[in-house]
Amino acid sequence: MATQDRSAADLPAIINAENLQSNMKSIYYSRTFLSIIGGVVAGIWGFTSFTGFVFYFMVMLAASFGLAAKAKFSAGSYFDSWNRILLDGILGGLMSFVLFWTFAYDIVHIF
Amino acid sequence: MADDLVLDTAIRNWVLVPLSVVMVLIGILRYFVSKLTRSSQNPDAKAIKEGQAVIRARNLRSGSHLIPSKSFRSRRIYFTNEENGLLYVPKEDAQKAQAQMFQDPNMAMDMMKKNLSMIIPQTLTFAWVNFFFSGFVAAKIPFPLTPRFRAMLQNGIDLSTVDVSYVSSRSWYFLNLFGLRGFFSLILGEENATDDAQKMMQMSGGGGFGFNASQSLGVEKDSLDILQHEWALPKMEHRAKDVLKNLAKKL
Fold first, then answer.
1. Which stretches are transmembrane (chain B) (predicted)?
2. What is the CA radius of gyration of chain B?
3. What is the ipTM of this complex?
4. Is beta strand B166-168 parallel, antiparallel or unpaired with respect to B137-140?
Protein backbone atom coordinates (compact mmCIF):
# COMPACT_ATOMS: atom_id res chain seq x y z
CA MET A 1 0.00 0.00 0.00
CA ALA A 2 2.77 2.39 0.93
CA THR A 3 4.59 1.92 -2.34
CA GLN A 4 1.43 2.52 -4.23
CA ASP A 5 0.84 5.72 -2.35
CA ARG A 6 4.30 6.95 -3.12
CA SER A 7 4.12 6.30 -6.84
CA ALA A 8 0.60 7.68 -6.97
CA ALA A 9 1.84 10.86 -5.32
CA ASP A 10 4.47 11.24 -8.02
CA LEU A 11 1.80 11.39 -10.67
CA PRO A 12 -0.56 14.28 -10.96
CA ALA A 13 -3.96 12.99 -10.06
CA ILE A 14 -6.43 12.29 -12.80
CA ILE A 15 -9.56 13.94 -11.53
CA ASN A 16 -12.76 15.05 -13.13
CA ALA A 17 -13.24 18.53 -11.69
CA GLU A 18 -17.00 18.54 -12.15
CA ASN A 19 -17.47 15.28 -10.31
CA LEU A 20 -15.19 16.47 -7.56
CA GLN A 21 -17.27 19.60 -7.24
CA SER A 22 -20.48 17.63 -7.06
CA ASN A 23 -19.01 15.36 -4.40
CA MET A 24 -17.92 18.36 -2.38
CA LYS A 25 -21.35 19.87 -2.74
CA SER A 26 -23.04 16.78 -1.38
CA ILE A 27 -20.63 16.82 1.56
CA TYR A 28 -21.51 20.44 2.21
CA TYR A 29 -25.22 19.69 2.11
CA SER A 30 -24.97 16.75 4.45
CA ARG A 31 -22.89 18.73 6.92
CA THR A 32 -25.27 21.68 6.87
CA PHE A 33 -28.24 19.40 7.34
CA LEU A 34 -26.52 17.60 10.19
CA SER A 35 -25.57 20.82 11.91
CA ILE A 36 -29.18 21.99 11.84
CA ILE A 37 -30.52 18.67 13.09
CA GLY A 38 -27.74 18.49 15.67
CA GLY A 39 -28.63 21.97 16.90
CA VAL A 40 -32.26 21.02 17.38
CA VAL A 41 -31.30 17.82 19.17
CA ALA A 42 -28.82 19.60 21.41
CA GLY A 43 -31.44 22.18 22.30
CA ILE A 44 -34.09 19.61 23.10
CA TRP A 45 -31.72 17.63 25.25
CA GLY A 46 -30.87 20.84 27.05
CA PHE A 47 -27.13 20.94 26.55
CA THR A 48 -25.57 24.14 27.78
CA SER A 49 -22.25 25.88 27.28
CA PHE A 50 -19.32 23.55 26.70
CA THR A 51 -21.33 20.36 26.35
CA GLY A 52 -23.17 21.73 23.36
CA PHE A 53 -20.02 22.53 21.43
CA VAL A 54 -18.56 19.16 22.31
CA PHE A 55 -21.78 17.65 21.00
CA TYR A 56 -21.42 19.59 17.76
CA PHE A 57 -17.91 18.37 17.16
CA MET A 58 -18.94 14.84 17.98
CA VAL A 59 -21.70 15.08 15.42
CA MET A 60 -19.19 16.35 12.89
CA LEU A 61 -16.80 13.54 13.72
CA ALA A 62 -19.58 11.05 13.21
CA ALA A 63 -20.37 12.78 9.91
CA SER A 64 -16.74 12.48 8.84
CA PHE A 65 -16.78 8.82 9.70
CA GLY A 66 -20.04 8.29 7.87
CA LEU A 67 -18.74 10.08 4.78
CA ALA A 68 -15.55 8.06 4.88
CA ALA A 69 -17.60 4.90 5.10
CA LYS A 70 -19.74 6.07 2.21
CA ALA A 71 -16.55 6.63 0.20
CA LYS A 72 -15.60 3.05 1.07
CA PHE A 73 -12.57 4.39 2.98
CA SER A 74 -10.76 5.24 -0.20
CA ALA A 75 -10.89 9.00 -0.44
CA GLY A 76 -8.62 8.95 -3.46
CA SER A 77 -11.31 7.65 -5.77
CA TYR A 78 -13.77 10.41 -4.92
CA PHE A 79 -11.70 13.36 -3.68
CA ASP A 80 -8.26 14.80 -4.09
CA SER A 81 -7.37 14.52 -0.42
CA TRP A 82 -8.60 13.10 2.85
CA ASN A 83 -9.14 16.56 4.26
CA ARG A 84 -12.13 17.00 2.00
CA ILE A 85 -13.90 14.25 3.88
CA LEU A 86 -12.53 14.81 7.35
CA LEU A 87 -12.25 18.56 7.77
CA ASP A 88 -14.03 20.52 5.06
CA GLY A 89 -16.98 22.56 6.21
CA ILE A 90 -16.79 21.66 9.88
CA LEU A 91 -16.76 25.26 11.02
CA GLY A 92 -19.16 26.40 8.31
CA GLY A 93 -22.13 24.80 9.99
CA LEU A 94 -21.34 26.20 13.42
CA MET A 95 -23.51 29.29 13.08
CA SER A 96 -26.48 27.23 11.92
CA PHE A 97 -25.89 24.89 14.82
CA VAL A 98 -25.82 27.73 17.35
CA LEU A 99 -28.97 29.26 15.88
CA PHE A 100 -31.03 26.10 16.01
CA TRP A 101 -29.54 25.09 19.34
CA THR A 102 -30.59 28.41 20.87
CA PHE A 103 -34.00 28.19 19.26
CA ALA A 104 -34.81 24.70 20.47
CA TYR A 105 -33.27 25.32 23.88
CA ASP A 106 -35.32 28.47 24.43
CA ILE A 107 -38.55 26.92 23.30
CA VAL A 108 -38.15 23.76 25.34
CA HIS A 109 -36.38 24.92 28.47
CA ILE A 110 -36.78 28.65 28.94
CA PHE A 111 -40.33 29.51 28.11
CA MET B 1 -27.43 31.81 37.54
CA ALA B 2 -28.94 30.62 40.79
CA ASP B 3 -32.46 30.91 39.52
CA ASP B 4 -33.43 31.14 35.90
CA LEU B 5 -35.51 33.96 34.65
CA VAL B 6 -38.88 32.90 33.43
CA LEU B 7 -39.68 34.50 30.11
CA ASP B 8 -43.18 35.21 29.03
CA THR B 9 -44.51 32.81 26.42
CA ALA B 10 -45.89 35.83 24.60
CA ILE B 11 -42.31 36.73 23.80
CA ARG B 12 -41.86 33.40 22.12
CA ASN B 13 -45.11 33.68 20.21
CA TRP B 14 -44.75 37.28 19.14
CA VAL B 15 -41.00 37.91 18.93
CA LEU B 16 -38.81 34.86 18.66
CA VAL B 17 -40.77 32.77 16.19
CA PRO B 18 -42.11 35.65 14.05
CA LEU B 19 -38.63 37.09 13.71
CA SER B 20 -37.23 33.84 12.40
CA VAL B 21 -40.18 33.29 10.09
CA VAL B 22 -39.90 36.80 8.72
CA MET B 23 -36.20 36.41 8.06
CA VAL B 24 -36.70 33.10 6.27
CA LEU B 25 -39.48 34.59 4.16
CA ILE B 26 -37.39 37.64 3.34
CA GLY B 27 -34.56 35.39 2.28
CA ILE B 28 -36.85 33.44 -0.03
CA LEU B 29 -38.36 36.62 -1.39
CA ARG B 30 -34.92 38.00 -2.12
CA TYR B 31 -33.99 34.84 -3.92
CA PHE B 32 -36.94 35.09 -6.27
CA VAL B 33 -36.67 38.85 -6.73
CA SER B 34 -33.03 38.58 -7.68
CA LYS B 35 -33.95 35.74 -10.02
CA LEU B 36 -36.53 37.94 -11.71
CA THR B 37 -34.45 41.06 -11.99
CA ARG B 38 -31.39 39.31 -13.30
CA SER B 39 -31.03 40.88 -16.69
CA SER B 40 -30.25 38.43 -19.41
CA GLN B 41 -27.07 39.58 -21.01
CA ASN B 42 -26.58 39.09 -24.66
CA PRO B 43 -23.34 37.20 -24.77
CA ASP B 44 -20.95 38.82 -27.12
CA ALA B 45 -19.11 36.56 -29.48
CA LYS B 46 -15.65 37.78 -28.66
CA ALA B 47 -16.09 37.25 -24.94
CA ILE B 48 -17.31 33.72 -25.48
CA LYS B 49 -14.40 32.99 -27.79
CA GLU B 50 -11.96 34.19 -25.18
CA GLY B 51 -13.69 32.22 -22.47
CA GLN B 52 -13.51 29.05 -24.50
CA ALA B 53 -9.84 29.66 -25.23
CA VAL B 54 -9.19 29.97 -21.51
CA ILE B 55 -11.04 26.75 -20.83
CA ARG B 56 -9.11 24.91 -23.51
CA ALA B 57 -5.83 26.22 -22.17
CA ARG B 58 -6.84 25.12 -18.70
CA ASN B 59 -7.64 21.65 -19.96
CA LEU B 60 -4.28 21.48 -21.64
CA ARG B 61 -2.61 22.49 -18.41
CA SER B 62 -4.42 19.98 -16.24
CA GLY B 63 -3.98 17.16 -18.74
CA SER B 64 -0.42 18.02 -19.70
CA HIS B 65 1.03 14.89 -18.16
CA LEU B 66 -0.98 12.72 -20.49
CA ILE B 67 0.73 13.82 -23.70
CA PRO B 68 4.36 13.63 -24.77
CA SER B 69 6.60 16.65 -24.38
CA LYS B 70 6.70 17.42 -28.07
CA SER B 71 2.94 17.52 -28.41
CA PHE B 72 2.67 19.63 -25.31
CA ARG B 73 5.19 22.14 -26.61
CA SER B 74 3.46 22.52 -29.93
CA ARG B 75 0.11 23.04 -28.21
CA ARG B 76 1.64 25.55 -25.87
CA ILE B 77 3.01 27.52 -28.74
CA TYR B 78 -0.38 27.44 -30.37
CA PHE B 79 -1.80 29.07 -27.28
CA THR B 80 0.88 31.44 -26.16
CA ASN B 81 2.99 32.66 -29.06
CA GLU B 82 3.35 36.39 -29.32
CA GLU B 83 1.98 36.82 -32.81
CA ASN B 84 -1.29 34.98 -33.16
CA GLY B 85 -1.52 32.76 -30.10
CA LEU B 86 -5.00 32.31 -28.78
CA LEU B 87 -4.15 33.69 -25.37
CA TYR B 88 -2.06 36.58 -26.52
CA VAL B 89 -3.70 39.95 -26.01
CA PRO B 90 -2.09 43.05 -27.47
CA LYS B 91 -1.48 45.81 -24.97
CA GLU B 92 -3.82 48.42 -26.44
CA ASP B 93 -6.59 45.84 -26.72
CA ALA B 94 -6.39 45.14 -23.03
CA GLN B 95 -6.73 48.79 -22.17
CA LYS B 96 -9.59 49.21 -24.57
CA ALA B 97 -11.43 46.32 -22.97
CA GLN B 98 -11.04 47.83 -19.56
CA ALA B 99 -12.33 51.21 -20.68
CA GLN B 100 -15.26 49.51 -22.32
CA MET B 101 -16.05 47.72 -19.13
CA PHE B 102 -16.31 50.97 -17.23
CA GLN B 103 -18.49 52.52 -19.87
CA ASP B 104 -20.92 49.68 -20.05
CA PRO B 105 -23.92 50.86 -18.04
CA ASN B 106 -25.47 47.41 -17.92
CA MET B 107 -22.63 46.07 -15.84
CA ALA B 108 -22.82 48.85 -13.29
CA MET B 109 -26.57 48.51 -13.19
CA ASP B 110 -26.33 44.82 -12.45
CA MET B 111 -23.85 45.34 -9.71
CA MET B 112 -25.97 48.03 -8.13
CA LYS B 113 -29.03 45.84 -8.29
CA LYS B 114 -27.21 43.08 -6.52
CA ASN B 115 -25.90 45.36 -3.83
CA LEU B 116 -29.27 46.96 -3.29
CA SER B 117 -31.04 43.65 -3.04
CA MET B 118 -28.55 42.79 -0.36
CA ILE B 119 -28.54 46.00 1.63
CA ILE B 120 -32.14 47.17 1.58
CA PRO B 121 -33.81 44.15 3.18
CA GLN B 122 -31.12 43.93 5.81
CA THR B 123 -31.43 47.56 6.77
CA LEU B 124 -35.20 47.37 6.85
CA THR B 125 -35.28 44.26 8.98
CA PHE B 126 -32.72 45.66 11.34
CA ALA B 127 -34.67 48.89 11.76
CA TRP B 128 -37.88 46.92 12.25
CA VAL B 129 -36.33 44.76 14.94
CA ASN B 130 -34.75 47.72 16.67
CA PHE B 131 -37.91 49.73 16.66
CA PHE B 132 -40.45 47.19 17.76
CA PHE B 133 -38.59 44.60 19.77
CA SER B 134 -36.09 46.47 21.88
CA GLY B 135 -35.96 46.87 25.61
CA PHE B 136 -36.63 43.36 26.81
CA VAL B 137 -34.96 40.01 27.04
CA ALA B 138 -36.02 37.86 24.13
CA ALA B 139 -33.93 34.74 24.36
CA LYS B 140 -31.29 32.93 26.31
CA ILE B 141 -28.31 31.57 24.50
CA PRO B 142 -27.27 28.27 25.98
CA PHE B 143 -23.63 29.15 26.54
CA PRO B 144 -22.07 31.72 28.85
CA LEU B 145 -20.38 34.85 27.58
CA THR B 146 -18.15 37.36 29.25
CA PRO B 147 -19.63 40.67 30.45
CA ARG B 148 -17.88 42.42 27.61
CA PHE B 149 -20.66 41.28 25.31
CA ARG B 150 -23.29 43.01 27.41
CA ALA B 151 -23.28 46.27 25.49
CA MET B 152 -23.62 44.45 22.19
CA LEU B 153 -26.13 41.78 23.09
CA GLN B 154 -28.26 43.47 25.72
CA ASN B 155 -28.79 46.90 24.32
CA GLY B 156 -31.81 48.59 25.80
CA ILE B 157 -31.86 46.47 28.93
CA ASP B 158 -29.45 48.36 31.20
CA LEU B 159 -29.56 45.94 34.09
CA SER B 160 -26.14 44.84 35.20
CA THR B 161 -27.51 41.98 37.27
CA VAL B 162 -29.03 40.09 34.37
CA ASP B 163 -26.84 37.27 33.19
CA VAL B 164 -25.15 38.01 29.88
CA SER B 165 -26.55 34.93 28.24
CA TYR B 166 -29.97 36.53 28.25
CA VAL B 167 -29.99 38.53 25.06
CA SER B 168 -32.27 41.03 23.44
CA SER B 169 -34.02 40.60 20.15
CA ARG B 170 -31.31 42.39 18.22
CA SER B 171 -28.88 39.59 18.95
CA TRP B 172 -31.50 37.09 17.94
CA TYR B 173 -31.69 38.97 14.66
CA PHE B 174 -27.94 38.69 14.14
CA LEU B 175 -27.95 35.05 15.07
CA ASN B 176 -30.61 34.51 12.42
CA LEU B 177 -28.73 36.55 9.88
CA PHE B 178 -25.65 34.36 10.10
CA GLY B 179 -27.21 31.07 11.01
CA LEU B 180 -29.84 30.90 8.30
CA ARG B 181 -27.27 30.91 5.51
CA GLY B 182 -26.86 27.15 5.70
CA PHE B 183 -30.62 26.72 5.91
CA PHE B 184 -31.10 28.75 2.73
CA SER B 185 -28.55 26.74 0.85
CA LEU B 186 -30.54 23.66 1.77
CA ILE B 187 -33.96 24.92 0.74
CA LEU B 188 -33.05 27.13 -2.21
CA GLY B 189 -30.26 25.14 -3.75
CA GLU B 190 -26.74 26.10 -4.52
CA GLU B 191 -26.96 29.37 -6.36
CA ASN B 192 -29.06 31.28 -3.88
CA ALA B 193 -28.81 35.00 -3.61
CA THR B 194 -28.05 35.04 0.07
CA ASP B 195 -24.50 33.99 -0.36
CA ASP B 196 -23.40 37.48 -1.15
CA ALA B 197 -19.82 37.18 -0.12
CA GLN B 198 -19.23 34.37 -2.56
CA LYS B 199 -21.02 36.21 -5.29
CA MET B 200 -18.80 39.23 -4.84
CA MET B 201 -15.77 37.00 -5.09
CA GLN B 202 -17.06 35.43 -8.26
CA MET B 203 -17.79 38.79 -9.73
CA SER B 204 -14.33 40.14 -9.13
CA GLY B 205 -12.87 36.86 -10.32
CA GLY B 206 -15.02 37.26 -13.36
CA GLY B 207 -15.03 34.06 -15.42
CA GLY B 208 -18.55 33.76 -16.71
CA PHE B 209 -19.38 37.40 -16.98
CA GLY B 210 -16.66 38.14 -19.47
CA PHE B 211 -15.81 40.67 -16.85
CA ASN B 212 -12.11 41.08 -17.40
CA ALA B 213 -11.61 38.38 -19.95
CA SER B 214 -8.40 39.85 -21.26
CA GLN B 215 -6.92 39.67 -17.80
CA SER B 216 -7.83 36.04 -17.33
CA LEU B 217 -6.34 35.35 -20.74
CA GLY B 218 -3.08 36.87 -19.55
CA VAL B 219 -3.11 34.89 -16.32
CA GLU B 220 -3.77 31.66 -18.16
CA LYS B 221 -1.01 32.43 -20.64
CA ASP B 222 1.48 33.02 -17.84
CA SER B 223 0.64 29.84 -16.00
CA LEU B 224 0.88 27.89 -19.23
CA ASP B 225 4.24 29.47 -19.91
CA ILE B 226 5.79 28.52 -16.60
CA LEU B 227 4.44 24.99 -16.53
CA GLN B 228 7.10 22.34 -16.13
CA HIS B 229 6.03 19.61 -18.45
CA GLU B 230 6.35 16.04 -17.34
CA TRP B 231 5.04 13.08 -19.22
CA ALA B 232 3.42 10.44 -17.09
CA LEU B 233 3.92 7.46 -19.36
CA PRO B 234 7.48 6.55 -18.32
CA LYS B 235 6.30 6.27 -14.73
CA MET B 236 3.28 4.25 -15.60
CA GLU B 237 5.27 1.04 -15.53
CA HIS B 238 5.92 1.49 -11.84
CA ARG B 239 2.31 2.18 -11.23
CA ALA B 240 1.23 -0.82 -13.23
CA LYS B 241 3.69 -2.92 -11.29
CA ASP B 242 2.20 -1.73 -8.01
CA VAL B 243 -1.32 -2.34 -9.15
CA LEU B 244 -0.50 -5.82 -10.35
CA LYS B 245 1.36 -6.58 -7.16
CA ASN B 246 -1.63 -5.56 -5.09
CA LEU B 247 -3.84 -7.64 -7.27
CA ALA B 248 -1.59 -10.63 -6.86
CA LYS B 249 -1.59 -10.13 -3.12
CA LYS B 250 -5.35 -10.14 -3.00
CA LEU B 251 -5.55 -13.34 -5.02
1. 14-33, 116-139
2. 28
3. 0.76
4. antiparallel
Helix, strand, or coil here: B167? strand
Whole-angstrom Cα distance, residue A40 to residue A55?
12
For the CA atoms of A55, B15, B153, B179, what is the dihedral angle to 10 degrees? 40
Q: Give dist(CA A29, CA A55) in Å, integer.
A: 19
Task: Tell which wins on pLDDT, B40 or B82.
Answer: B82
- Which residues 68-127 on chain B approach chain A with CB closer than 8 angstroms? none
Domain spans in chain B, listed from the N-terminal domain onward: 9-250
Q: Rounded to 5 degrees, what are φ and ψ at B152?
A: -80, -45
Best CA proximity match to B239, nearest among A14, A93, A31:
A14
Tell me the mean pLDDT in the region B209-237: 75
CB atoms within 10 A of CB B157: 16
- Tell whether A77 is within 8 A of chain B (Cβ): no
Contact B246 A8 (CB under 8 A): no
Q: Is B228 an interface residue toward A (CB < 8 Å)?
A: no
A-to-B residue pairs, Cβ atoms closer than 8 angstroms: 98
In 3D space, the residue among A45, A57, A48 whose CA is nearest the CA of residue A93 turns out to be A57
Residue B46 CA to residue B53 CA, distance in Å, equals 11
What are the residue ranges spanned by the domains of chain A? 22-110
CB B184 within 8 A of CB B26: no
The rounded distance, in Å, linking the Cα atoms of B9 and B130 is 20
Contacts of A95 in chain B (CB under 8 A): 175, 178-179, 181-182
B137 in helix, strand or coil? strand
Chain B interface mutation, best of A7, A30, A34, highest count of B Cβ atoms under 10 Å: A7
**A5 at the B interface (CB within 8 A)?**
no
Q: What is the mean pLDDT of residues B234-246?
A: 86
* DSSP conformation class of B84: T
Per-residue pLDDT band for B214 (boundaries 50, 70, 90) equals low
DSSP 8-state symbol, A94: H
Q: According to DSSP H, which parts of A46-74 are helical?
A: 49-70
